[in-house]
Amino acid sequence: xxxxxxxxxxxxxxxxxxxxxxxxxxxxxxxxxxxxxxxxxxxxxxxxxxxxxxxxxxxxxxxxxxxxxxxxxxxxxxxxxxxxxxxxxxxxxxxxxxxxxxxxxxxxxxxxxxxxxxxxxxxxxxxxxxxxxxxxxxxxxxxxxxxxxxxxxxxxxxxxxxxxxxxxxxxxxxxxxxxxxxxxxxxxxxxxxxxxxxxxxxxxxxxxxxxxxxxxxxxxxxxxxxxxxxxxxxxxxxxxxxxxxxxxxxxxxxxxxxxxxxxxxxxxxxxxxxxxxxxxxxxxxxxxxxxxxxxxxxxxxxxxxxxxxxxxxxxxxxxxxxxxxx
Length: 326
Known about the structure:
Blueprint: E1 4-6, E2 13-18, H1 28-37, E3 42-45, H2 50-62, E4 65-72, H3 74-87, E5 94-99, H4 105-110, H5 117-128, E6 133-138, E7 140-143, E8 153-155, E9 157-161, H6 162-175, H7 182-197, H8 202-206, E10 208-214, E11 220-230, E12 250-256, H9 262-270, H10 276-280, E13 283-288, E14 290-295, E15 299-301, E16 304-306, E17 313-316, E18 320-325
Parallel strand pairs: 2-3, 2-4, 4-5
Antiparallel strand pairs: 1-6, 6-18, 7-8, 7-17, 9-11, 9-15, 10-11, 10-14, 11-12, 12-13, 14-17, 15-16
Helix pairs in contact: 1-5, 2-3, 6-7
InterPro entries: ATP-NAD_kinase_N (IPR017438), Diacylglycerol_kinase_cat_dom (IPR001206), NAD/diacylglycerol_kinase_sf (IPR016064)
Organism: Acidisoma cellulosilyticum
Domain DAGKc: 9-146
C-alpha cells in the first residue's frame, strides 16, 4: 500500500457514478441535487448495467474527467475499476468512494468521507481546495490464461472453496429477507465457520479440489477448505488471516481440507500468531506477485461469483489505483 500524501492539483473535471441498484442509493439522485447544482464541474450518471457503465466512462474520459467519485459498495467499485482501462488506457482517474453498499471493505480500508450528500460536498470542497489525501493501492487482477481475449477483472479481495460456500449462504439469507446489513452477514459467516469446526458441514469438511501455484514455486494440488488473496493491508473488524514471507503485492492464504487441529490453527491464525506446526498441518500463507489456480468451483471477487473455466485463473498485481479522500 502506498503512502498517504496530499494532492497538489485540483482535478479539471469530476465524474460521479451512482449505482442505481444499491438499496442505499434509491434516493441518492434527489439527495445530491442541491450539491450538484453548486458544483457544475461534476458530471453525474447512474448507469444500469455494464454496457451503460462503459458508455458513461468513455464519455467521462472524452470530457477530461480525472477524479471519479463512486457511490456504491465493493461490487460497484470492482465493476468501475474493471471497466476503466477501456476508457482510460493510459492514465486512470483518481477514485473517491462514497460507501453505499451492504459491505464496504474497500471504503473502510482505503478511506471514504461517508455516503450522504454531506460526504459528497466534503469531497468536492476538498478537491477544489487541493486538500485531498491520496493512497495508492495495488489492484488484484484476475484473468483467464486460456482465454486471452476475455477482459480481466480487478478488485481487492478474492476467495474460493468455503469462501464461495459462505457467500452462497449469505446471499440466500439476504434474498430470504433474514439479513440485509454487513453485521448480520458477518453472523452468517461466523455460523458457517462453526459448522466447519464442529464437522456439521460435509462439503466444507471434504473441501474442493484445487491446484495452487505461487510464482515459480512448485504447484500444490489437493482438496482445499479455504483460499483467500488480497492486495489490501487490512480487513474488517481487525481480521487479518495472512502471514508468511515473500515479495509482491498479493497476500494469500491456503488451508487444506480437514487441516490438523482446526480450532487451534484458526485461533492462532486470527490472533496473528502462526505456529511452525501449522505449515505441516495444512496451513500456508505468504506474499507474491502472481498466483495460478486450477479450480472447478466458482470463485468470489469483491462479493460476486465468477466461473473459472477449464484453464483456471491467474491472479496478479501489476496495476494500481489511487484512492483519494478529504
